[in-house]
Specification:
Blueprint (H helix, E strand, L loop, with lengths): L1 H15 L4 H9 L4 H29 L2 H4 L4 H17 L1 H4 L3 H7 L14 H11 L6 H16 L2 E2 L10 H7 L1 E2 L1 H14 L4 E6 L9 E8 L2 E5 L15 H4 L12 E4 L19 E4 L13 E9 L10 E4 L2 E4 L11 E6 L3 E8 L2 E8 L5 E7 L4 E2 L3 H6 L3 H4 L10 H18 L1 H10 L1 E4 L2 E10 L7 E7 L7 H11 L8 E6 L13 H16 L2 E11 L1 H12 L6 E5 L16 E6 L7 H18 L6 E6 L13 H6 L9 E5 L7 E2 L2 E2 L10 E7 L2 E7 L3 E6 L10 E5 L2 E6 L5 H10 L9 E6 L1
Parallel strand pairs: 1-2, 8-14, 18-19, 18-20, 20-21, 21-22, 22-23, 28-30
Antiparallel strand pairs: 3-4, 3-6, 4-5, 6-7, 8-11, 9-10, 9-12, 12-13, 13-15, 16-17, 17-19, 24-27, 25-26, 26-29, 27-28, 29-32, 30-31
Helix pairs in contact: 2-3, 3-5, 8-11, 15-22, 16-18
Length: about 750
């Protein structure tokens, strides 16, 4: 009994010996992976003593939750052991301050790159490169000069992702500045050189973002571009001038360096700005120079339609300044005024009746001057949207044009952004289409395809047809799938029969199906000439179950839907308000009460139609004497469905969240992560008045367009009888950009957004 008591006591001491508050919190966050993280700390202690324990604890305390829940003990222990080996092996590493070693040598990653065991291979290669080096600076310079040639990786914007891991970059032979920086940091760390990623989200001149690295030597940090060896030494780089203009107190324009230790600030990963898992320190002060104030001159501007013509009213802008010219009865000396840098050249943007042109002027050194401009002599200005789209994809969201758009400009921006996104998604989407495999939500969905008729001028129809089967062996569902592609033959369109990713009873209404169908639709719209307003949903038996489920919650993606011989389970018809819906059932199809429930749904839809005569268009057909197989009589669905075209901007919407929630429905959306089962929104628009009834929501976004309401006039919004908004709302590139990134569906893209809280 005494021995047992002592044993328990000893075990408790071991467990508590490293359970500091911060560490214990991380161990709890590890969840089911706790044993791996806890085992890592214990084995590091056993193998490397107190310093190993301290090193392991530091590493764990800085780990993001995703790593805590996924990384294995052996991976972490190998990384730590090799880092400690480098600390003993290389002279510049032996006397490093503990905090520098922990923070800038020990970590196994820099940003959010794929986690992989790079340290052993890099140590082997880099040990040879630095054998004649006597300092961290010499070692870093030697690695930067030789390592990228050795592994054959260099700068190229054709890379797969900005944040590639070392092996991903080596496989491709290319990387951007971020991928190259990750490699150089890892290479330096492999031989005990403290290194970290540094960069800015957006240069102060808004010319783009950049990433490089910093290395620590003799108590100071120094910088260098990755794969940009400079024989003149560190702190020499092409971007030195840009860095000198960084702005410390502006997050976007500041310069940041990564930190493993949590700092309260995060590194700006421009490819994923929502990710705040990488800590950082603001190091702008080491790069930026004090900015000299430039004297300003006041420039008075008159604008004429032509020389010796009439004065005209237009908007003139420069940077954030915006003024309006005078005309008509205004005094000749009553002019628009704008402040510009004395003695410098400037480009003014002139907007007259929705058309933009530019004026290049030289500003005198005098405190005030006057210029006359003739509209007919001005250069047509490049579209700000076109110029912005020329940036790398990962840079765009940091410098989205903020100016208000006219209706014409919004239309042009929508077209430009659509073309850009379609072109950029071509490679991945084309491969999916060629392979006939859709990937989304961690699942894969194969499909078969048939094409009918000639492509109409307004684009092809798309018919998604779901097979039966369900909780059966894969071969049974495969047979059902192969049969499904032969069932329906529309006069025109592409028929797609997807193969359910699983063989479960609910194969067509699992949570991943929505994302897979959304991806399929986007692919077909972007690359196959499908009209997003002519997409139809069908399904037989278990596929009919899917129609019952998917049609109400994804009604905004379809023009019509037809359910054949299925069961609704817990589906709710409320969302079908704007989606024409058909039910086909055999009178004797009694399994699971399918026949009885079909009749019940007919009654439900009739009731909804009675209360809302302009909505809930439906048709229910019960075939007398037939069972589960309807002898293909349900083919009658196709011509009826083909008559219907989706309206992406209905004046009235009924949005009811089911167990599988969505953030967006027609021109409504909720903030990400706030959608909950049971939430309901009902909208009605009359003229410029939007009336909304809600249940269970605190926030709602209205995604507006001139297709729905006149954005040049005031809008009044009432929520549950209370006025929440009155005024105008501006068309913005941001609204268009967000819409099209969510869905490659230009016909449903918003041009303005109003955010409501209640």
């Amino acid at each position: 009994m005494k021995i047992l008591t002592v044993g328990v006591a000893l075990l408790s001491c071991v467990a508590l010996s490293f359970a500091q508050p911060a560490l214990e919190s991380q161990l709890e966050a590890a969840g089911n992976n706790r044993s791996n993280i806890e085992g890592f700390v214990k084995e590091a202690t056993a193998k490397h003593g107190p310093f190993g324990k301290k090193s392991a604890a530091f590493l764990v305390e800085g780990m993001p939750v995703s790593d805590l829940q996924s990384l294995k003990k052996d991976f972490l222990l190998e990384n730590l052991s090799l880092a400690l080996k480098a600390r003993e092996q290389f002279p510049w590493a032996k006397n490093l301050p503990e905090k520098v070693f922990f923070n800038d040598v020990l970590p196994y990653a820099s940003l959010d790159e794929t986690r992989e065991p790079w340290r052993k291979d890099f140590h082997s290669k880099c040990s040879v490169i630095v054998k004649d080096s006597n300092s961290a600076t010499q070692a870093a310079q030697a690695i930067n000069r030789e390592f990228f040639k050795l592994i054959n990786v260099h700068y190229n914007t054709g890379r797969k992702a900005p944040n590639q891991s070392p092996s991903e970059s080596q496989k491709l032979g290319m990387a951007t500045c971020t991928g190259l920086s990750i490699i150089l940091v890892d290479a330096c760390r492999s031989v005990g050189v403290p290194a970290r990623v540094a960069g800015t989200a957006l240069w102060a001149n808004k010319r783009g973002n950049h990433t490089w690295i910093e290395i620590y030597d003799e108590g100071q940090w120094h910088f260098t571009g990755a794969d940009e060896f400079n024989k003149n030494g560190l702190n020499k780089a092409w971007f030195t001038g840009d860095a000198s203009k960084a702005i410390a107190d502006d997050w976007k324009h500041a310069i940041w360096a990564t930190s493993w230790k949590k700092s309260g600030t995060h590194f700006p990963m421009v490819w994923d700005l929502k990710n705040r898992n990488v800590a950082s320190v603001n190091v702008t002060h080491r790069y930026a120079k004090a900015q000299k104030k430039t004297a300003a001159s006041i420039v008075n501007i008159r604008l004429w339609d032509k020389k010796e013509g009439k004065r005209i009213i237009a908007t003139i802008s420069h940077g954030e300044q915006k003024v309006t010219t005078k005309a008509g009865t205004a005094d000749l000396n009553d002019m628009a005024q704008i402040k510009l840098s004395s003695g410098a050249s400037a480009t003014l943007q002139v907007d007259f009746e929705g058309e933009k042109r530019s004026a290049h002027i030289e500003v005198t050194k005098a405190p005030e001057s006057t210029i006359d401009l003739s509209w007919n002599q001005l250069n047509q200005a490049e579209s700000p949207v076109a110029a912005w789209l020329d940036l790398l994809p990962e840079e765009r969201h940091l410098s989205i044009p903020e100016n208000d758009l006219s209706k014409k400009e919004a239309t042009e921006a929508l077209s430009l952004i659509t073309k850009a996104l379609e072109a950029e998604s071509l490679e991945n989407r084309k491969k999916e289409l060629e392979a006939k495999v859709i990937k989304a939500a961690g699942k894969e969905m194969k499909y078969l395809e048939r094409q009918f008729g000639k492509q109409p001028a307004d684009g092809r129809s798309l018919w998604i047809s779901m097979h039966g089967g369900g909780g059966a062996p894969a071969r049974v569902n495969d047979q059902q799938w192969q049969n499904q592609i032969r069932l329906y033959e529309p006069a025109e369109g592409i028929v797609v029969a997807p193969r359910a990713p699983s063989n479960t009873w609910n194969l067509w209404h699992e949570g991943h199906i929505d994302a897979l169908f959304a991806r399929l639709i986007d692919n077909m719209v972007a690359l196959r000439g499908v009209n997003p307003n002519k997409i139809y949903l069908m399904g037989y038996s278990a596929g009919g179950d899917g129609v019952y489920q998917l049609a109400p919650r994804m009604a905004d993606r379809f023009a019509a839907a037809a359910m054949m011989a299925g069961h609704p389970n817990d589906a709710n018809p409320l969302g079908l308000r704007n989606l024409p819906f058909m039910i086909f059932m055999g009178e004797n199809d009694a399994a699971y009460d399918r026949n009885k429930i079909a009749v019940q749904w007919d009654k439900k839809l009739n009731g909804l139609r009675k209360g809302d005569p302009s909505g809930y268009d439906h048709q229910v057909t019960i075939y007398k004497g037939l069972g589960h197989w309807m002898d293909r009589k349900d083919r009658a669905a196709l011509p009826w469905m083909a008559k219907h075209i989706r309206n992406p901007w209905p004046k009235r919407i009924v949005w009811h969240q089911s167990g599988r929630t969505h953030d967006r429905f027609y021109w409504l959306s909720v903030p990400e992560g706030t959608a909950k089962k049971g939430q309901t929104v009902i909208t009605k628009i009359k003229g410029q008045i939007i009336e909304i009834k809600t249940k269970g929501l605190k926030k709602l976004n209205l995604r507006l367009s001139d297709e729905l309401i006149n954005l040049d006039q005031e809008i009044m919004i009432k929520v549950n009888g209370v006025q929440k908004f009155q005024g105008k709302t501006a068309r913005k590139v941001q609204a268009i950009w967000d819409s099209l990134n969510q869905r490659l569906d230009p016909s449903s893209a918003a041009t303005a957004v109003i955010e409501l809280t209640f």
